[in-house]
UniProtKB/TrEMBL annotation:
Gene3D superfamilies: 1.20.58.60. Residues 33-60 form a coiled coil. This is Muscle-specific protein 300. It comes from the Eukaryota. The keyword Coiled coil applies.
Length: 272
C-alpha cells in the first residue's frame, strides 16, 4: 500500500513540476513560487528516497526468505540422518565385539560405508553452517542449527573412535584366526598323528635293533618338536585371552570352548 501511495505522489509531483499550465495556476496562489517549488522538490526527493528504501527492504525480505528456505531444506536432509546415526552409534557401542573373523569384517565394512555416507553428508552440513549467519534474526532456526552442529561434532568423534576399534578388532581376529588354524590344523594335528603312530607300535614285537632305534628317534624328535612349539602354544593361549575384548558374548562362549579343546589336546599330547 505504501509503495502504491508513494508512486502516486511521485507521478503527481512529476506532472506538477513539468506541466507549465499547473505552474501558471500555482503562480496565482502562493506569494513565493520559488519556495513552493523548493518544497515540492524536497517532497519529490523524499518520495524517491522512501521508494528506494522500500525496494531495498523488499529485496532483503526476499533474500532472508530465501536463506530461511535454504536452511530449512538442508535441515530436512541433515536432521533425520543425524538421528539415525546417533541410534546406529549407540547400538554399536552397546553391542561391543564380534562373533568371529567374518563378523568382524562385516562390522568394519559396514562402518566404512557409513564413513563414506558421512563424507557425503559433510557437504550438506557445511552448507548449513554457511547459512547460519544469514538467519541471525531467526533465533529459533539459528539455535536449531547450533544444536545440529554440536550433534554433528559428537558423531564425528564417536564414529572415528568406532572406526579405530573396528580396525583393531579386525586385525586381532585376523591374526588369531591365522595362528589358530596354523596351530590347531597344522602343528597340533601333525603331532597327534605322530604320537598316535608311536602308540600303535607293539613294543613286544620290536626285536629289530634298527626299528627300536628308529622308534626312539621318532619319540625324541616328537618331544623336541613339542617343546619347541610350546612358544606357539603359549602365544595362542595369550591370544585367546586378548581377543575377549573384541568378542561378543556369543563369541566369547565359542572362544572358551575352543580354548578348552585346544588346551585338552595339548595336555593329552604332553602326557603321551
Amino acid at each position: 500500500r505504501i509503495r502504491i501511495d508513494v508512486a502516486g505522489y511521485l507521478h503527481a509531483l512529476s506532472l506538477l513540476h513539468s506541466d507549465g499550465s499547473n505552474l501558471e495556476t500555482l503562480r496565482s496562489k502562493p506569494k513565493d513560487l520559488r519556495n513552493t517549488l523548493a518544497r515540492l522538490n524536497q517532497l519529490r526527493a523524499l518520495a524517491e528516497t522512501t521508494s528506494n528504501k522500500i525496494n531495498r527492504e523488499e529485496e532483503q525480505v526476499v533474500q532472508s526468505r530465501t536463506h530461511v528456505q535454504t536452511s530449512q531444506r538442508y535441515i530436512q536432509q541433515l536432521q533425520p540422518w543425524i538421528e539415525q546415526t546417533e541410534s546406529y552409534l549407540n547400538n554399536r557401542f552397546e553391542q561391543a565385539g564380534a562373533l568371529n573373523l567374518n563378523d568382524a569384517k562385516q562390522l568394519l565394512d559396514r562402518h566404512k560405508e557409513f564413513l563414506e555416507e558421512r563424507r557425503r553428508m559433510l557437504t550438506i552440513f557445511n552448507n548449513l553452517r554457511d547459512e547460519e549467519h544469514t538467519v541471525a534474526d531467526q533465533k529459533e532456526l539459528q539455535l536449531l542449527i547450533k544444536s545440529l552442529s554440536t550433534r554433528w561434532t559428537n558423531i564425528v568423534s564417536r564414529s572415528d573412535e568406532l572406526a579405530s576399534i573396528y580396525n583393531a578388532q579386525y586385525r586381532a581376529w585376523g591374526a588369531f584366526d591365522s595362528e589358530l588354524n596354523a596351530f590347531r590344523d597344522g602343528t597340533l594335528f601333525d603331532f597327534e598323528q605322530r604320537a598316535h603312530n608311536i602308540v600303535l607300535v607293539d613294543f613286544n614285537k620290536l626285536l629289530d635293533l634298527n626299528r627300536i632305534n628308529s622308534l626312539l628317534n621318532d619319540i625324541r624328535l616328537l618331544v623336541e618338536n613339542i617343546t619347541h612349539h610350546s612358544v606357539n602354544y603359549n602365544s595362542l593361549m595369550k591370544q585367546f585371552n586378548d581377543l575377549k575384548q573384541y568378542s561378543s558374548q556369543e563369541g566369547q562362549r565359542i572362544l572358551n570352548e575352543e580354548h578348552l579343546t585346544i588346551e585338552k589336546r595339548w595336555n593329552d599330547l604332553n602326557r603321551l
